[in-house]
Amino acid sequence: MYSKIAHGLATEEEIVIPIPTACVVKSLTFTNKSYWNRSIDIKFADTYFLYKYQISGYRLFENTVIIPALDHIIHDGESITIKVSDDNSIEYLISGEIFD
After folding, report:
1. Which partner from 18, 40, 87, 93 sits 20 to 30 angstroms from 30, CA to CA?
2. What is the domain extent for residue 25?
3. 53-86 pLDDT, tens per residue?
């Protein structure tokens, strides 16, 4: 069963997987809660996964991007970095399997 690795509102936030835990990131979900378009950068272990990826602003409803079936391994001490172009407008959910 998958569990929530991290969630919240992103401006520039680094999510560090605690030592000695490793995990497999299974999916990423991002919702633009702003009226304006926003870009997002995501790095796994200092390597870009998405760079300046554009998420449209909502006009009548929020715009959500889901990246399913990712299966990316994050090792002990590595991190996931999320950076958004402006303000607290991108809500994120990172789910996967956490190993003890």
Report:
1. 18
2. 3-99
3. 999 887 767 799 999 988 899 888 888 888 888 7
- Specify the CATH number for the domain of residue 53: 2.60.120
Q: In this structure, what are the phi and psi dihedrals at residue 86, rounded to the nearest 5 degrees?
A: -165, 140
Helix (H, G, I), strand (E, B) or coil at 57: coil
Sequence-separated (6 or more) residues with CB below 8 Å from residue 1: none
Q: Is the peptide bond before 18 cis (omega within 30 degrees of 0)?
A: no
Its pTM stands at 0.83
Answer for the pair 90, 13: CB distance below 8 angstroms, yes or no. Answer: no
Query: At a CB cut-off of 8 Å and minimum separation 6, what does 67 contact?
Result: 27, 28, 29
Q: How many domains does the chain have?
A: 1
- Which residue's entry shows tokens 């929530």? 4
Tokens 């789910």 locate to 95
Helices (H), the chain: none
